[in-house]
């Protein structure tokens, strides 16, 4: 069920800037003060993933798109994957969690080119370690995946 909340034009423009301009590394989205639209809260060209994670509040929901850069094994080059993250921490207000969950598709459907979609409720779920869905962007696991498919 949709909440009726829609992304602003700026949301779509900043996403296109991240996707095609390669100047931005991430965009963090949230709800407007009146909770009637999705707005851009922060953009950054900072490539430090831990810095990005620290921008996600402990008790408030957010959506984000992060442009992951990773190196293929064997010196085969550098690649990028766009990751859509729905941040809904356990300690967030229940009403806000419901609005964010029901509004996610209004934003996500407008963002073409997303390679990975992740929902996280705790910081441990958005780390780049071996237990995270983001491990596919870890060079050591890339070689394991390619060996399995061979």
Task: Explain what this protein looks like in three dimensions.
- The chain is built from four helices and six strands; from the N terminus they run E-H-E-E-H-E-E-H-E-H.
- Helices cover 30% and strands 27% of the residues.
- It is α/β, with parallel strands linked by helices and 150 residues long.
- It has a six-stranded mixed β-sheet with strand order 1-3-2-4-5-6, covered by helices on one side.
Task: Summarize the structure in short.
This protein has 150 residues and is of the alpha/beta class. It has helices spanning 9-21, 49-54, 94-108, 139-149, and strands at 6-7, 26-31, 37-44, 62-71, 78-87, 116-120. The longest helix is centred in the C-terminal third of the chain and has 15 residues, at 94-108.
């Amino acid at each position: 069920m949709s909440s009726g909340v829609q992304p602003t034009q700026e949301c779509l423009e900043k996403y296109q800037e991240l996707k095609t301009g390669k100047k931005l590394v991430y965009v963090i989205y949230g709800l407007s003060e009146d909770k009637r639209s999705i707005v851009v809260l922060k953009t950054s060209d900072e490539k430090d993933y831990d810095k990005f994670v620290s921008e996600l509040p402990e008790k408030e929901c957010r959506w984000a798109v992060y442009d992951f850069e990773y190196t293929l094994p064997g010196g085969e080059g550098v690649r990028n994957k766009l990751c859509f993250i729905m941040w809904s921490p356990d300690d967030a207000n229940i009403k806000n969690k419901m609005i964010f969950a029901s509004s996610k598709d209004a934003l996500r459907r407008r963002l073409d080119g997303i390679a990975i979609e992740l929902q996280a409720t705790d910081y441990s779920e958005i780390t780049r370690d071996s237990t995270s869905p983001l491990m596919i962007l870890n060079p050591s696991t890339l070689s394991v995946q390619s060996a399995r498919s061979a």
